[in-house]
Amino acid sequence: MQILSCTKSEALKLLKENNNSISEAFQAARKWGQQTTKGWDFKLPRVAIPEALILGIPSDSWGYNNDDRNDFSLEDLIGAIQGGETYERVREYLTHHHQHLGASLAESINGMVESFPAFFFVVETRNAELVRTWAGFGGDVNVTYGSLKVPLLAFAISLSTSYAKDTTMMVKTLLSLGASVDGIPKAFYTPLDRDLPQDGPTDEELTDLEDTDKQWCTPLARKLITTALNMSFTQRYVLYLAAHLEKVSGASRQVARLHKATDLLGIHYFLIGQVMASKFLVRRLIAELAMPRDRPLIFLFAGPSGHGKTELARNLGKLISLDLHMVDCTSINTEHDMFGPRAPYYGSGDGSPLNNFIVQHSGRRCIVFLDEFEKTKNDVRQTLLIPFQSGEYQDRRDLRTVDFSKSIWILATNAFDQTIHSFCKRHETVLFDCYGSTKSMNEAEKLVQKLSGMIKEECIWKFTAPMAGRIKSFLPFLTFSPCEQAAVADKYLSEFGKDATKPLKISDNPATARMFGNVDVQLRRGYSVCKALAANGGYVRELGARSIINAVDCKVGQPVINSYLDSREEIVEGGSMGRFVVGVCEDSMDVEDEVVVSQVSGEDGEDGPVAGVGEKSGGHEASR
Q1: H or E segment at 366?
Q2: Sign of CA dihedral 206, 210, 213, 214
Q3: Is residue 8's pLDDT more than 60?
Q4: Torsion of the alpha carbons at 146, 148, 151 and 156, rounded to the nearest 10
């Protein structure tokens, strides 16, 4: 059945939305067809806000206390979401109706509102947690709009027009939930190491534009996507990952779904680099879920500082909703410092933070992260041997035995940095350029497995064989490739840009005052900027991301703030927004790849370079 290019399912949805009136559904279909045939402008219509939201009536006003309390209204829900309803209220509404509708709620939330898939309105909020919740109740992350089939993922990218409206976390979330990158033309993210042309990839580059799932990429859409991707190199980076990494098997997804751990499968999108470490971690955890054992799961995270060990542990806890306890081993001198004295010795009644965390999570899954594990003394490591083997621990406060067999322990160490640095340098071609083919990925994986074995051998010498024998997986954290370095720079540029947009607050109290803000920072040639920040000593492999953070602060953050202050006699709230453009010098070969910060000033848009930064550029970098 076809109605103006509507599929049968789309036509049925239109009928349902229009009270089964064929004439009204036909008019809606005509409007829908006209919009999508000529190309959509990537703007959503406004939906009426329900009375409950307008009047500020408490949450039971959603209909819980009347005869119609079980009637689900997708249009009211979307209207409330567009009107600014809180994430907590929306989740409460969905949870309530899921109790009554069960699996049929998924069909409802995948319906249409004003001829658009409801999920598009959810993505418009830029709230990644709301998107995750919507998908959790059955929302289809691969839904498309109209006869040109605009992917939800493309719409999410298009919304990223500035740091204040950044959608990078949204794009990562959609990909982690299974959104397909197939509908995005490859030229937007391959090759990765370049800036996109201002109007988007050329016709010659868009070799796949005739594919049925890419018909949406009109000249207007192309420019919108390009503007967003040139502002966020990280989005191009994760699209590239999604296109090149192997898909998770259906059986693994089935195991993860049973244990409510499906979010774990997309953990690599929330890191920069460390694809192999993430892959090995997920494999081991899925295997453990498929065949549980009554003993803790022990991992060794080995790698230089600033390369994602702590970030991976935090994301692991967040994505599968496990409590995480972190211990800084540099301050641990004895086993008493780690666990506390045993009863009846003085101080045993309080217990250490780690002791109390273990007891509170008896019989439950949780994560313990021991940072700089190489700083621990032998008596501390000896104390861990029996619990690591048996899965039982004795509460130091009352000597009661507790079950911590379901716990995950991560031993993070820098002890093997020299081995990792040498290995990465020796095999950099294979390790850092491995996404082009399955063969390249397999070669890289074999190399990392070899490195893992080398670390295991060194671990026996460093921590003794009994401790090494209890560690289930030795995960090497590699140094960053050039594109990964650029992605790290983009991440911290984005953080600075978002902070800069926050409003000013004038106060006599230094703790509450905010004397820099209301500033819009934009990028010109985003990849080149990020590459320049990481190059020429910006990235130091011994320091990792911290070195790039310093480069962003030195070459962008400080010049912007200093110029902001130098151009004002007084800081006042409510003034016009300040504007800065960050680019790279293009006028002189001797300053190639130099970062240029320019301030946009005046109503006519005239601008100039910030003093001391890129003077040779003449200031044209900021014209946008």
Answers
A1: strand 366-371
A2: positive
A3: no
A4: -80
- φ and ψ at 400, to 5 degrees? -80, 140
Query: What single-letter amino acid sits at 555?
Result: K
Structure tokens that stand for 134 in this block: 């919507």
pLDDT in tens, 285-302: 999 999 988 899 999 999
Token look-up 């509170």 returns 360
Smallest CA-to-CA distance from 121 within 91, 76, 162, 180 is with 76
Residue 284 CA to residue 472 CA, distance in Å, equals 9
Please name the residue that has the structure tokens 């800069």. Answer: 500
- Going by their DSSP bridges, the two strands 144-145 and 150-151 should be labelled as antiparallel
Query: Tell me, what DSSP letter sits at residue 6?
Result: B
Is the CB of residue 583 less than 8 Å from the CB of residue 609? no
pLDDT tops 70 at residue 178: yes
Tell me how far CA of residue 233 lies from CA of 85, 275, 437, 560, in angstroms.
31, 18, 22, 21
Classify strands 595-600 and 578-584 as parallel, antiparallel or unpaired: antiparallel
How many other β-carbons are positioned within 10 Å of the β-carbon of residue 218?
Answer: 16
Q: Residue 575 pLDDT > 90, yes or no?
A: no
Nearest CA to 262 out of 392, 138, 429, 91 is that of 138
- Contact indicator for 439, 446 with CB cutoff of 8 Å: no
Q: Which of 456, 583, 588 is nearest to 531 (CA)?
A: 583
Q: What is the phi/psi pair of residue 526, to 5°?
A: -55, -45
CA distances to 14, 26, 107, 331, 479 from 114, rounded to whole Å, are 9, 13, 17, 59, 49
Stretch 12-38: mean pLDDT: 61
pLDDT (tens digit, 9 = 90+) per residue, 34-78? 444 457 899 999 999 988 655 454 445 554 454 444 588 899 999
Q: What is the DSSP letter of 294?
A: S
Which one, of 260, 279, 259, lies nearest residue 269 by Cα? 279
Task: Specify the residue for token string 């409003």.
Answer: 503
Question: Helices 128-136 and 168-176 meet at what angle, rounded to 10?
Answer: 20
Amino acid at 386: I
* Dihedral Cα 115, 117, 118, 122, nearest 10 deg: -120
DSSP conformational letter for 341: P
Amino acid in the structure at residue 299: F
User: DSSP class of residue 381?
Assistant: H
Beta-bridge partners for 400: none
329 and 288 Cβ atoms separated by less than 8 Å: no
State the SS3 of 583-602: EECCCCHHHCCCEEEEEECC
Other beta carbons within 10 angstroms of residue 236's beta carbon come to 28
* Spatial separation of the C-alpha atoms in residues 87 and 72, rounded to whole Å: 17
According to the model, what pLDDT value does residue 315 have?
94
Rg of the chain over all Cα atoms, to the nearest angstrom: 27
Q: Whole-angstrom Cα distance, residue 546 to residue 355?
A: 32
- Is the pLDDT confidence value at 5 over 50? no
Tell me the one-letter amino acid at 208: D
pLDDT of 17: 65
Tell me, what DSSP letter sits at residue 553? Answer: I
Euclidean distance between CA atoms 159 and 179, whole angstroms = 17
